[in-house]
Design a protein that fits this description.
There is one protein chain. The chain has 141 residues and is of the alpha+beta class. It folds into two domains: 38 residues; 99 residues, GMP Synthetase, Chain A, domain 3, CATH 3.30.300. Helix content is 33%, strand content 38%. The strands form two sheets. It has a three-stranded antiparallel beta sheet, with no helix packed on it.
């Protein structure tokens, strides 16, 4: 895996993934930024959300669950001192579909957290307290 980060002036950077996708990074105005893009730590949190949501959906599809939507809402706390690392991250899943089995949803989230989500496991090994919960929105059949 590769990435390239190029300075775009001030505290703004253009990030390009090894697969050619780009993202703009920028700092807050009080640190010289112009709010032109996500903060690097926001991208880290979004990457974690994407990683675990990917796992959960893949597992639920294999379990033949009729999922019509899956949203991972993340909230994080950071240390007050520099470096301002994540100390706690909570992931709340909202899974929508028809005839969903709670045991499959709970198991998918557990498997992602404990076995599959590289980002989650890496952060937890680094001392971040990770928690998860979920809600199920059942659609009429």
């Amino acid at each position: 895996m590769e990435a390239k980060i190029s300075w775009a002036g001030g505290v703004s950077f253009n990030a390009e993934s090894g697969t050619g996708h780009t993202v703009t990074l920028d700092g807050p105005p009080n640190l010289g930024g112009e709010n032109l893009g996500a903060r690097p730590m926001e991208l880290l949190l979004m990457g974690l959300g994407g990683c675990t949501a990917f796992d959960v959906m893949t597992i639920l599809k294999k379990a033949r669950q009729d999922v019509t939507d899956c949203v991972a809402e993340l909230s994080a706390e950071r240390a007050d001192a520099v470096p301002s690392v994540f100390t706690k991250i909570h992931v709340h899943f909202v899974v929508t579909g028809r005839n969903l089995k709670e045991k499959h949803i709970a198991r998918a989230i557990q498997l992602s957290a404990e076995e599959y989500c590289s980002a989650s496991i890496m952060l937890e090994k680094g001392g971040v307290v990770m928690t998860h919960d979920y809600e199920i929105v059942e659609l009429d059949t």
